[in-house]
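Retro notes, item 3 of 5
We never archived the inputs for the acetyl coenzyme *A complex last cycle. Fixing that now. Sequence and ligand:
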Amino acid sequence: MNHVKIIGTGSAAPDKVLSNNDLETLVETSDDWITARTGIKERRIADENTASSDLGYEASVKALESANIDASEIDGIIVGTITPDFLFPSTACLLQSKLGARGVLAFDISAGCSGFLYALHVGYGMITGGTADKLLIVGAETLSRVVDYEDRSTCILFGDGAGATVISRSDEPGILSSIMNSDGKDWQLLYQPGGGSRIPATEESIRNKEHFLKMEGKDVFKVAVKSMENATVEVIKDANLDPSDIDLLIPHQANYRIIEAIRKRLDMPEEKVFCNLDRYGNTSSASVPIALDEAIKIGKAKKGDTVLFAAFGAGFTWGASIVKL
Ligand code: ACO
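Structure as it came back at the time:
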C-alpha cells in the first residue's frame, strides 16, 4: 500500500528566554494578565546572527538523525514560514544547501501558523502521488523580527523556533487524513503590511511601523476557535474515527483558551492534549512540529499512537491532520 509515515522529528529553539516578567519592563502588562489570557510564561528569542534557516537547519539535522537517514536520501524540502531569511530565495533552498541535500525540489509555503500542516499536506500528496519517497517537512520562524515590542497586544504572544519531520512512503498506515482550508476575506485581521509589493520599504513605511505584524486579537481569536474546532471534527470523521480514538491532540500553540475550547468540543480529557506554549509562546509554523518532537521525546506520543494535529493562522488558513505514529 501507498502510505505516508513520519519517520523522524527534530526541533530547535534559541537559548535566550524572554519571560513575562521581562515583558513587564518593556510594555504595560503583567505576568498575571499574560498567563490568564494566553497560558504563556516565556518565549525564546533568536540572537541577531540567527535567522529562520539556522533554526530550521538545527531541527532538520536532528530529524534526519532520528529518521536514521542522510540528507542525500531526501527527495524534497518544504518549509512553512512567514519569517523567511529573505523574501527570496526561499528558506527551503538555503536549507538544501546547508544540509548538502541533492538538488531536489525545495520551496516555502506561506500559510501563517498553519504553514507546517500545509507543508505536511503537500508532502503527503507528493508521496501518495508517486513524485517523492522521502521529504523533509519543516516549520521555521523568527517572529521576534516582525514583532513590535511596543505593542502589548502582540509582543506577549510570539517566539522563535523550528521543528522538522521526515516523512516517507511506507507499507504501514501513517497519515490517515489531512484537510486544509482558507478564507482570505478577513486577511487584514492578521498581517504584516510592509515589505511586499504593496507597501515596499520606504522611510515612511518604517516610521509608520508597517514592517511589524498587526493583529486584531479578539476577532482572530473567535475565528481561530471556530475554524480549528470544525476542522478537528471534520478530519476525525474523514478518517472514520471517533474522538475517543485519538491518543493525543497536538494543536497549534497560540493560546491556552483556544486549545481548551477544542478539547471541550471533542470531549477529550486534559491528559490527551499536548501543550508547551507556556515555554515557547506562539512560534507560528514551528509550533506543531516542536510540540510533536517534544511529545515523542518525553514519551507522551509513542509509536502506534493516533495523533491529531490542528492549526490556524494568517490568511486565514486552517486545517487538521490525523497521523498514526
Ligand atoms: N497586558 C495587559 N493588558 C492588555 C494586554 C497586555 N499584554 N494586551 C491587551 N490588553 C488589554 C486591552 O487593551 C484591553 O483593554 P480595554 O478593555 O481597556 O480595551 C483588554 O486587555 C482586553 O483586550 P483583548 O484584546 O480583548 O484581550 P483578549 O482576551 O482577546 O486577549 C489575545 C488578547 C491574547 C491576543 C487573544 O485575543 C488571542 O489570543 N487572540 C488570538 C491570537 C491567535 O490565535 N493568532 C493565531 C494565529 S497567529 C499567526 O498566524 C501569525
